[in-house]
Amino acid sequence: MNANSKWSLKKDVFLEIDPDGKSGMLIDTTSSNYCSCNKTALLILGKLKKGKADISNLTKEVLKTSEINQSIARKDVSEFLIKLKNLNLINEKN
């Protein structure tokens, strides 16, 4: 995974946040796939929805709300992006 890549949600992918703001659903209208999301996933997906986020910025956002060290946060963000990419839910721009 290229650290300089910019990521964004695809146009047919929607994020629905529960009223409590602590959970939500990610919905792919192309494939009709959906999954539930925790608070950290929602944070990352919200940034991806706004467009063109990179691993470094996403890691910084996670660190603002979590008590984990930077290397773990970066690893978690990278793994989450890989999963989203494999599900064809995000766009990558180098």
Could you explain the architecture of this structure?
The protein has a 3-stranded antiparallel sheet. 43% of the residues lie in helices and 24% in strands. The model has no long low-confidence stretch (mean pLDDT 92). It has one domain (8-93): Outer Surface Protein A, domain 3, CATH 3.90.930. With 94 residues, it is an alpha+beta fold. It is built from 3 helices and 5 strands; from the N terminus they run ββββαααβ.
In short:
With 94 residues, the chain is α+β, with helices and mostly antiparallel strands. 43% of the residues lie in helices and 24% in strands. The radius of gyration is 13 Å and the shape is globular.
CATH class equals Alpha Beta
CATH topology: Outer Surface Protein A, domain 3
Poorly predicted runs of 5 or more residues: none
Distance from first to last alpha carbon? 11 Å
Which strand order do you get reading across the main beta sheet?
2-3-4
- What overall form do the CA principal axes indicate? globular
User: Average pLDDT across residues?
Assistant: 92
Secondary structure category: alpha+beta
What is the count of distinct domains?
1
Q: How many β-strand stretches?
A: 5
Q: Write down the oligomeric state.
A: single chain
Q: Main beta sheet, described?
A: 3 strands, antiparallel
Radius of gyration: 13 Å
Q: Helix and strand succession?
A: EEEEHHHE
Helix fraction, binned, reads: 40-55%
Number of helices: 3
Gross CATH architecture: Alpha-Beta Complex
The fraction of residues in strands falls at 15-25%
